[in-house]
Design goal:
The protein is mainly α and 231 residues long. It has 7 helices and 2 strands.
């Protein structure tokens, strides 16, 4: 039994380091591209220079360091402290993303002239950041995070995946990985509701509701305005 748990921990550690780092790298690249374009073309965000898009990169890189340290092992107490820091960093990035969206919407209502291309790029970056950040929040939240789920494979869960209801139809060692949580986040953002995953905890429901609301604002206001300007 102990050998099985150790193997599970090693597997979760690999996922923690590489999958989370890759997801954060995608977000960082998107923000670097938007920051570069904003600085090059003098784009502003309600009077704030294009450098503002580069601000969340620091907490994102610190998050990568945090999950890398978590992947090296440690008991549940150490893992819990690192996980709390990781969650705090993800929430910080989410708050920045929400503020950026609010400033963008303010510009739309104040009538400042903007190109459709600029609006479309900013909307894509905001929406994509929302999807990846929420997915990683779900991943860190569910059952105490990846290492918490490894230590307690039959413990409580914040999400019920469809694979859990059909164990005979999936691999015997199936367990939710980061991609599953990002898929959950994507469906929440695009359909404003969960597709095949049921939220079980109130925390999960609150995060999903916030994500759906921010996504709706991005799609209905910013992206729709970008299409109308281009058209």
């Amino acid at each position: 039994m102990k050998a099985e748990v150790n193997e599970e921990l090693r597997r979760e550690s690999r996922e923690t380091r590489w999958e989370a780092s890759s997801a954060v790298l995608v977000v960082v690249l998107l923000q670097l591209v938007l920051g570069y374009l904003s600085l090059r073309h003098s784009w502003t965000l309600w009077g704030v220079g294009g450098w503002v898009w580069l601000v969340p990169i620091l907490p994102e890189l610190v998050f990568v360091i945090t999950v890398a340290a978590e992947g090296r092992g440690g008991d549940l107490n150490q893992t819990g402290e690192r996980r709390h820091l990781g969650v705090a960093l993800l929430i910080l990035v989410t708050v920045f993303n929400a503020v950026a969206l609010a400033l963008l919407i303010m510009e739309l209502f104040t009538g400042e002239v903007r190109t459709g291309g600029e609006l479309a790029i900013e909307a894509v970056v905001i929406w994509s950041t929302l999807v990846f950040t929420s997915g990683m929040l779900f991943w860190e939240l569910d059952g105490g995070g990846p290492r918490g789920r490894a230590f307690r494979p039959h413990g409580y869960r914040d999400f019920l995946f469809s694979e859990m209801n059909a164990p005979k139809l999936v691999s015997p060692d199936w367990h939710p990985r980061l991609l599953d949580y990002i898929y959950l986040s994507f469906t929440t953002a695009i359909a404003w509701s969960a597709a095949d995953v049921i939220p079980l905890s109130r925390n999960a429901k609150v995060i999903m509701a916030i994500e759906a609301s921010l996504s709706a604002l991005t799609i209905l206001l910013v992206a729709a305005r970008a299409v109308s300007v281009i058209g």
